[in-house]
Amino acid sequence: MTSLESGNAMPATDPALERQLARLIVDTLHLEIEPESISPLDPLFRDGLGLDSIDALEIALAVSQSFGMHLKSDDEQNHQIFANLRSLAAHIAQHRTK
Amino acid sequence: MPALIPDFQPISPLAPPALAPAACLPLVTRALEEVIAWRNGEACTVAGFLKDVRHLAGQLPERPFVINLWTDRYRFLVGFAAALIRGQTSLLTSDRSPHRLAEIAADHEGAYVLDEAEEAAASVLPTLCWPAPGSTPAAMASCAVPMIPAWHPAAIVFTSGSTGRPVGNAKPFAALWQCSRAAAKRFGFDGPLTASLVGTVPGQHMYGFETTILLPLHANCATFAGTAFFPRDVSLALSTVPAPRYLVTTPFQMDKFLAVKEGLAPLAGVISATAPLPAGLAEAAERAWQAPVLEIFGATEVGSIASRRTLDGDVWQAYPGVELQDLGDERVLVEVPYLPSGVELSDRTELLGGGCFRLIGRRTDIVKRAGRRASLAGLSAILRQIEGVRDGLFVAPPELETNPATRLLAFVVAAATDLPAIERELRRRVEPAFLPRQLTLVSALPRNELGKIPRDQLLRLVQSNPAAEA
């Protein structure tokens, strides 16, 4: 596990959690792709996987059930959290209760 | 639970009055001390709102069009009102991609942007942020309620971009005013208590605009200013506003909110639009939340035109002043007060008289998803224009109307090696809501000698596609 030396309180990346999350997204949205094909830094929305707000809600529910946490949209960093697999995994790592 | 569908007679005080070309209407028809919005747990009164509107109006540049991107509903409302008293027109787009904003600006010379930050997506356009508090210019400091020219195009709302560029629909202030009055009566926002509206749809979308932004100007209700999208947002939002509370949402979100069993503060009602609400879902929502579930029927071109309580049956009651004209063959023309021309409904419609109608189904070419509408023929045309595509077709799977998570299918005749580039280009040109999960490569489309694809062939194509099972 590596830590990004950015000076900020940037959480360490967690490849295992990223893989678990990729699998969750693929299963939740019935994507016709292999979880391994989602690169951790690929954008999830629009230009990347092409997900939309309906998918965001589906992902949020799956995340709340799997990790015992709630995503909120008044979070200033919401766009950053949903930017890619790595950012979403980092947010989950910080807030999960299970 | 009371049935909220009113009697079938047009309510005379709500009939749209004749308005002279120079007529003006008040910006807001509420008492100054009443609450118009709830923001961070604090009440925003009409008096404070008018002060904010004048302050902002004094800061707006002298330009004809404003793209209002503010997501905070109170700020959005202040921006809309300030633009009105400066004689400007608000351009409402829920697609805030830089590409789309540049397109809108190209079509509306002199447009500027209201955004959260100057360096936001719209940075190519002149951008104004929420101003710091300060003194209001003397010219703007009057305490009278501003009067707005009734026929001024208060807003231009864009329909989805499935057939090339989105089309703008101009809304005279009088049309918005009349719709708010009708909805106020229909949903009971004309009583002594100020209702709290928590909206899960953006103010820039026609449905969210009419309900969560415009209603508080003319009906006894206050909008929750923050964002409520995920279930936890909604429960927090409802807990910060006083009763009677109304949730303004969509069938898809309602389904998800019920699924997580998030406890909600007591609701007085739920309002749903953008897609047909299945009766089973309405029943589950009424049972879980002990409140009537009401639906609005409308379209961006005409706005809200009718409502019903879902569990009372499939009959819609048109708003006062809305005229329905039978064009034959289950086609209906809608004329809305103060809109220049009638619009044909995209759904097949049965007229029942007395302003009542029943929707029989969608026309085969029009699909709705995530509150947006697209033409399958238009989407197919976009696909076929992409380099490397020899033939292409968008198809709506049969369950599209019953399951909002269903996606469109798209078939393409092309070299397999070109597929990634074609998918990338399609994502650039088509809104995410209408993108297929993947393009299905086929050797040929089953076109007949006229170039058309017979329905049975189409169904065979869909059934043979594994993506249709998802």
Describe, in plain words, how this protein is organized in 3D:
Chain B: Residues 81-309 form the AMP-dependent synthetase/ligase domain. Chain B: Keywords: Ligase. Chain B: GO terms for molecular function: ligase activity. Chain B: This is Acyl-coenzyme A synthetase/AMP-(Fatty) acid ligase. The complex is a heterodimer of chains A (98) and B (470). By secondary structure, chain A is an all-alpha fold. Helices cover 46% and strands 0% of the residues of chain A. Chain A contains 4 helices and no strands. The longest helix of chain A has 15 residues, at 15-29. The model of chain A is unreliable at 1-9 (pLDDT under 50). Chain B is α/β, with parallel strands linked by helices. Chain B is 26% helix and 26% strand. Chain B has helices at 46-59, 73-85, 98-107, 173-186, 206-218, 231-240, 251-259, 279-289, 376-385, 419-429, 455-463, and strands spanning 24-26, 35-39, 42-45, 65-68, 89-92, 112-114, 127-128, 147-149, 153-158, 168-172, 195-199, 221-224, 245-249, 269-272, 293-299, 303-309, 315-318, 323-328, 331-335, 343-344, 347-353, 356-362, 366-369, 372-375, 391-395, 409-413, 439-441. In chain B, the strands form 6 sheets. Chain B has an 11-stranded mixed β-sheet with strand order 3-2-12-11-13-14-15-16-17-22-21, with helices on both faces. In chain B, β21 and β22 form a beta hairpin. In chain B, α7 packs across α8 (279-289). The chains are: A mainly alpha (98), B alpha/beta (470). At the A-B interface, α2 of A face α6 and α7 of B.
